[in-house]
Amino acid sequence: MARFVHIIYQLIFYTLLSFSFLLPYTYSASLDNLQQLAIPPVTRYAPTLDVYPRHHAIAQDSKGYLYVGNTEGLLIFNGETWQYLKLPNGKLVRSLGAGPGQRIYVGGYDDFGYTEPDENGRIIYHSLAADFQQIRASGFADIWDLLVTESAVYFRAVQDLFRYDLATGNTTLWQHEARFGAMVEDDNQVYVQFRGEGVKRYQEGDFVPYLVEPALQQQIYRFIRIDSQHWLANRRDGVWLEIKHNQAQPIVLDQLPASSEFFDISLLQPGVIALAGKDGAIYILEWSTGKVSRFEISHDVLLAVNKAQQGGILALSNQHIMHLVWPSQWQSIDARYGLRGNIYDIAYWQEQWYLMGSAGAFTLPSVMPQGGFNKLNWTHHEAWDLLPLNDQQALFADSYSLFLVEEQQALAISHNAFYPRKLIPSEFHPKSILVATELGMAILRVPTPVQEAKIVLDWPALGTLVNSIVEMSAGDLWLGTATRGVVRLRLNPEYSQILQIDYIDAGYGIAYGEKGEAQLAKIDEQLIVSTAQGLYQYNGKDFVLWDSPLARLRLPGQVLTMSQNADKETWAYSHNRLYHKAADSWQEINTMGVGAGPLNTHFLASTPWIFGGNSTLFLFQPQTVAALQPAYNIVLQRVKTGLEGQLQAAVLQRDTPLVVPTEHYVMFDFTLPGLYPADTTVYRARLAGFEEQFSDWNRSRQISYYQLNPGHYQFEAQARDHLGRVSAITPFQIIVPQPWYLTWPARLFWLLVMLGLLWLLMRYLVRLRTQVLYKDRQRLRKMVDEHTRELAKANRKLESIANMDGLTGIANRRRLDSYLQQAATACQQQNRSLALLLIDVDYFKQFNDKFGHIKGDEVLQIVAAVLGNSLRRSEDLLARYGGEEFTVILPGADEEIALQVAEQMRQQVKQSSAGVTISIGIACTTVGAAIDPQRLLQQADKALYQAKAAGRNGVMLFKTERAINDKDE
Length: 969
Known about the structure:
alpha+beta; five-stranded mixed β-sheet; flat; disordered N terminus; disordered C terminus
């Protein structure tokens, strides 16, 4: 009875499995665990200066220059290069604040002041500490914080508070033995914490009590203004305080750590607060909703955080300055969470994310793991694809075999030389899986129970990687390959046999380019092909250029991977370009700064859409409004003039032209400030009056001119940023005056001198004229003879190189095609036979996989040498046909001689040190018959295919059907 119940249970179980497989496998992908790991694009800067790597503060001026307070002084970044500015006392810079224009206020150690560019464009530090000498000598130590308002700047030390009046230059000092705390400006009023007393407000030249509650007695690091008279504060003991309506009370922010875990807090926009965490993460608090976003951007503690003028967030650690793009449509997950290698496939199954890649298979459980992605033990090789069949079972492809996965165990269901790459459920045969392989394609039949799945069709004879399969109708398969373009297969109704093979060549209207690569996709029920030459659409008979905006956006020469999901969202991408079709319009998606490429795969079943790169996942959220990124303008930093090696900075007076003597150099130095990677910015320039056209866009930021003719010139420079926005400097005027030796008296003197010298020279030249002409004729004749001989020698050398294979030293395909046509014509005219051998190194792909391409190249060289020794006479030609294939042309050879030569070659290769065998296909013409070289090649190829099908290491002679019948008779 128990056995009967068990059998009934099994029948029910496998019946349910069969129904679950016959129906399309559906799932709802959860992105919560991925988004917990993802961060927006981050650009990291490490100052290229010989300073101690410890930073304290960060700020930007109105031009976009970046200022970093460092232990050794002030570091300045102009968008391209770093500058080190040392304070007069050689001490650190603790705090920074932006003032009007390019003024930056600086708080150091026993010193404070501001920086501004001088008339030459150099940034100069101006100390204000001397203005306070009468009321406070040195010894106040660090300026821990500063506050810039419209009327004054406040510099806060531990027990000293300095006020510098911007209108009058007057200075005021307050001292507080219990120490000062945070400062804030609210509605043009300044508030400062006097520790032990509470918060005071600046009023009529002094600070008066404002809030004296006990909660405000302990040290407060920062006040952040949420709205009028409404602040958030973080206290030293870890308590968060909300100050509202003149009352302060502790509050609990569930999603944030204790307030003491943050070194700095900054207001990004009203109600949105950024916090620099000691755990290396940026926290963003949206006050109205209480939502907290966390982005881990550093392995170090974050010391400062600030709003970036171009949008996003500036963050500071000891060694790095970071720019976080926020909000951003892009987020990424990188190698710090366990990802390794190129990612080939992304799948969601059993409430987990699975990644297949060059380092194996990885999974991310729905419950957030401590370390991120976990590597699975399914394979020791590359993992290529995962196809869920139902809730319990899936198919898994590694480098060599196909596996059935059940209960996290992978069981091989193919031989170990299967080489699967992509798994695609058949649209028209529900129990069949289309398998793209390294050498062709296969069909996997998945019956009920699933454990009895088996391969019913295996076609490795294509000999190249199939990268895409499109099933247009029942039994009508189109293959995109890496080297043989598009191939069309017709299958029997059972999907177990290939009935017809069509190789789609140029005759169908499609061009591939040098590599022969093609990618296929079904877009809006149309077959679309991407090659290096363009995008093509199948019209039912031939291929025509696809009339799509994508064809105009596509970078020339790039082959695109295209995909359309069930919602008709359409994407296309190459290794470094991404395109999206939205609202019937194609557009390129900017991926600058997103992460490491190349783009390899995609997951488009839900949003955000996911793309796989190198040890990185990219998440694209289209509904997110990208941060506004105002463009900075290119800046003319400096102009230098002078003699070579003695250039000096010139005064930059925009309204007065710069006078440059004609014998002097003039050098222009320009840059585009900003926070995006410098290598994404390009420049061009021209000197109007000297040149008409701008230079080509390039990365050069300096340009020099020398010995300009007298006149009026105008220097113009432009910069183009990563978004294609162009900015220009205000044209800079220079005047080159006439030198003294070009005045009228000087010109008259030089004219008389030249006339006299000319008369003497003419007399001398008349005497030498005959001799010079004779010697010139002799020298020219000799030069012509020498050049003629050298040209002939070079032509012979070029002809030899053009016809030689670089690896084996034998004839290449170009020489083969030319000689085959010549031999065919000659043999036909001379009434001779012509034999052609097509030779293939057996199992050479596996040999390369096992021993590597360098060893494979050595084998090809050995085989070529052995084959060359077996030629009969000088008119025989050995050529490399392509890859591991060789061709031998034997003019005058009949079938018997061709067989003898082929067998001798086969035996000698087998006995050689190459360690491989060869298969040979022979095609031979009869005496007096018309010779078609291409047909002869096709016949030899068919004979070679028969030799390989017969077990390889053999020789096969092509026989027509009529010849075989005659022999049978």
